[in-house]
Model the fold of this input.
Amino acid sequence: PIPADPYVQIPDDPYDFTDNQPGVGDRLYAALIDGVICTTLLFLAIHLIVALSKFSWHLLTWLQIVALVTVALYLLWLYFALAQSLEWRASCGQQILGLMVSGKNGENLTLGTATLRFLLALLLTVTGINIVYRFCLRKPSTLHDKIMNTQVTQA
Done:
């Protein structure tokens, strides 16, 4: 082997998290598991709210719909941002598949960072930008992870 030239430095890309990154399948399966859990929790919570209030499924007003969507977003935030900012560092689906979310240096996320990551992930996924970024451009991580300087790794 040729010895390395001490004067040539290859800069480390601070946004390259390809080491120890899970495959697309692991993240997809974790998302599916989380989707089932969240859908079940949201279904139960919304039915409980409707049962305890004077909502009528047939006569929902726009204000009631906005209230239910707000409750749903709040519950999703609790599920993802809290789980990823606590010592678990992962949602239930991610824990089952042995994944964890951290900062680029492996540090725990703060609640603020996890909240911004959740909101950005929601926005970029709903608009389809994350899908295009990850699959069409063949990037190793999602755009919200790049922007928030976070990573999903094998635990």
User: Anything to note?
Assistant: The chain is about 55% helix and 5% strand.
